[in-house]
């Protein structure tokens, strides 16, 4: 079995692959969103939240390919992955030539790598440790789709206009975890998501550079993810290539026999 001293490279590869997933947009039926809206200081936080939730994704399945780049420890690597998703149920990733494959569901995270005959079969601790914040399937899906990571109706929010965006934050920030949203006034999807744990010097920022309309769905087109813990930093950028919505999809995944398990301690 592969021990903890091998896990960091796998965390990078897995998280890197995962982040490409549902934000891949762009096909012949897509068009760029022209952002002409201006923030209205008279709108309440409740009105903005309602408009944001109205534009949540409604498609059932998504298939795509895209180029993703990861910068970490001064090194940059980029790959093109095949991606399939069924909303609220599964995200599936396939590396070139089938050399690695990943499958995540609300219950588990699974991955295998043919280049060194290893596999991981576990939960979201792997991804949560990488970004420094607790993740689950739905939070990952929402981040990738430009939506709030939790239901904003469950907490009282305050709003102000900040650099042409609506800046939302809880009226009472959590003592451990601070949360901020910047919401676009044109389509009410996220412009930015920020999570901070000051005590542990952890910071996660997701910036949405642009959006597209694909078959009447408003989806991110360009995205940048920055994860910081103390002096360690990782940046993920995504370049859109193609997407197809609402086609039949399969999720073939079987860990080959004889592979060594990656163990997190």
Question: Helical stretch count?
Answer: 4
Uncertain parts: 1-29
Gross geometry: globular
Distance between the amino and carboxyl termini: 12 Å
H-E string: HEHEEEEEEHHEEEEEEEE
Tell me what the structure shows.
α1 crosses α3 (125-131). 34% of the residues are buried. Residues 1-29 have low confidence and may be disordered. Helices cover 15% and strands 43% of the residues. The chain contains 4 helices and 15 strands. The chain starts with 6 loop residues before the first helix and ends with a strand. It is globular. The chain has helices at 7-20, 45-54, 125-131, 137-145; strands at 30-32, 61-72, 75-86, 90-94, 100-104, 109-113, 118-122, 157-162, 165-170, 178-183, 190-197, 202-214, 217-229, 232-245, 260-261. It has a 15-stranded mixed β-sheet that branches. With 265 residues, it is an alpha+beta fold.
């Amino acid at each position: 079995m592969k021990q903890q001293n091998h896990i960091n490279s796998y965390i990078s590869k897995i998280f890197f692959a995962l982040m490409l997933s549902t934000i891949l947009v762009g096909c012949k039926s897509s068009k760029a969103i022209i952002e002409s809206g201006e923030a209205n200081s008279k709108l309440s936080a409740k009105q903005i939240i309602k408009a944001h939730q109205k534009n949540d994704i409604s498609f059932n399945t998504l298939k795509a390919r895209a180029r993703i780049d990861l910068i970490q420890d001064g090194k940059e690597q980029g790959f093109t992955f095949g991606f399939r998703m069924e909303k609220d149920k599964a995200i599936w990733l396939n590396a070139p030539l089938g050399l690695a494959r990943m499958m995540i569901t609300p219950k588990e995270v699974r991955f295998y790598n043919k280049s060194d005959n290893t596999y991981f079969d576990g939960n979201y601790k792997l991804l949560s440790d990488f970004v420094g914040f607790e993740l689950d399937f739905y939070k990952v899906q929402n981040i990738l789709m430009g939506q709030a990571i939790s239901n904003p109706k469950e907490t009282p929010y305050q709003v102000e206009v900040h650099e042409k965006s609506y800046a939302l934050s809880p009226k009472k920030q959590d003592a451990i975890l601070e949360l901020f949203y910047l919401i676009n006034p044109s389509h009410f999807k996220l412009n930015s998501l920020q999570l901070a744990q000051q005590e542990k010097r952890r910071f996660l920022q997701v910036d949405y550079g642009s959006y597209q309309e694909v078959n009447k769905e408003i989806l991110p087109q360009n995205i940048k993810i920055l994860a910081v813990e103390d002096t360690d930093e990782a940046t993920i950028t995504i370049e859109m290539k193609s997407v197809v919505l609402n086609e039949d999809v399969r999720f073939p995944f079987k860990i080959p026999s004889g592979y060594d398990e990656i163990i997190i301690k």
